[in-house]
Amino acid sequence: MSSARRPVLVEGWRFIHHSYALVAQCHCLSLMRRSGLDLRFRELPFPHAAWKTTAGIFTPAQERALAELPAPEPGFAPEATFTLRPEAPDFSAPSSGRRFAFGTAEYRLLAEENRPGLRSAAELSDTVHVVTPSHWAALAFERFGFPAGRIHVVPHGIDPAVLHPDDVSRAATRNELGLQGHFCFLSVGAMTWNKGLDVLLAAFARVVETEPDVRLLLKGSDALYPSRQLVREVVGDLEAGARRAVAERLIYDGRTLSAQAMARLFRAADCYVSPYRAEGFNMPVLEAMACGVAVLCTAGGPTDEFTTPAFARPIRSRSLRRQLSEKESGDALEPDCEHLIELMREAVREGDRTRAAGALAAVHAAEHFTWDAVTDRLVAELLPGQA
Questions:
Q1: pLDDT-based confidence at 109, cuts 50/70/90?
Q2: Angle (nearest 5°) at CA 192 between 190 and 160
Q3: CA distance 190 to 222
Q4: Percent of the chain with pLDDT over 70
Q5: Is pLDDT of 113 > 90?
Q6: Residue 168 in contact with residue 208, Cβ under 8 Å?
Q7: N or C: which end of the chain has fewer CB within 10 A?
Q8: What does DSSP say about strands 329-335 and 317-323: parallel, antiparallel, or unpaired?
């Protein structure tokens, strides 16, 4: 193998609290530590004019390193181009090497709006590949006609320097949030239908009937989505008594927070809950695990691929079809609300067991899903033979 550095181009976003941007930047931070690569970054435009860059998501040193990543010069010929563009994956043939288009395909369907003018992958150059974070999502690209050898499953990761158990941090954050003496459930996300917020709040309303000292912490993303309004609407749909009981025990935070601040929120929780209907991966579940928090999450979806029953209690679910447009429908899951109620009550009543499960979750995440570990897997796909 030649000692020459192998050219790699990453295309995506920096300095915005969007999952695709976080994935791109975390991979880049790991790639920059590898001596055998010649790395460039091309900034893609935001799809919405209202989206703005935000400083402070990573550490100052990390943000300086990301900001200093050079753009590709004229004549730069990457061996691999890794493109993270969510609205419509870039399936164009690269000018050199191979393109790896990142996609999540939550509903296991590559919808018409995500493949403008394309009928199948048979129309694409064989230099165009797909990277997706789960086998659940990979089925969308298989259905679209990509050969198995051009679909690469690379899970997401965590930074163990940031996301790890810390009893001192946990106690301080719980004190700030007024959680002393309360069992706290946490859920993070856009608060859209696929996240199962309505199921979570309906279950929580029932749990408080028998476990009045519980609290629910919801972390939305108001800078990118109408998360706060979605929470208000779902709470408003509850029966009056349940609405009051939930509102009295609900803590909502929609701010854009640094990775360190997010870690503190995760640690403050006693149990992470994700009754999702459709996800490409579900990164907050992995992040909660890394912080030593036991999880409850929908069975049958992508979280099955990185959790075990030792620390993750699966919520029974049934398969359903979700109408995505007049012509298209995709795969989703409907979590069993009654089973979720049962699991939430057990998590509260068996507090010692819940804490022990969280400790196991942290070990599992740190051993198998660091960003360095999953970037090793990415490099193996992008650059076969690269050490």
A1: very high
A2: 35
A3: 8
A4: 99
A5: no
A6: no
A7: N
A8: antiparallel
User: Position of tokens 């459709």?
Assistant: 278
SS3 string, the chain, reads CCCCCEEEEEEECCCCCCHHHHHHHHHHHHHCCCCCEEEEEEECCCCCCCCCCCCCCCCHHHHHHHHCCCCCCCCCCCCEEEECCCCCCCCCCCCCCEEEEECCCCCCCCCHHHCCCCCCHHHCCCCEEEEECCHHHHHHHHHCCCCHHHEEECCCCECCCCCCCCHHHHHHHHHHHCCCCCEEEEEECCCCHHHCHHHHHHHHHHHHHHCCCEEEEEECCCCCCCHHHHHHHHHHCCCHHHHHHHHHHEEEECCCCCHHHHHHHHHHCCEEEECCCCCCCCHHHHHHHHCCCEEEEECCCHHHHCCCCCCEEEECEEEEEEECCCCCEEEEEEECHHHHHHHHHHHHHCHHHHHHHHHHHHHHHHHHCEHHHHHHHHHHHHCCCCC
- Evaluated on CA atoms 146, 149, 153, 159, the torsion sign reads negative
pLDDT in tens, 122-132: 999 999 999 99
Token pair 């990453």 is at which residue?
Answer: 10
Given this model, what pLDDT does residue 193 score? Answer: 96
- Domains in the chain, CATH or no CATH each: 6-157+371-382 (3.40.50), 167-368 (3.40.50.2000)
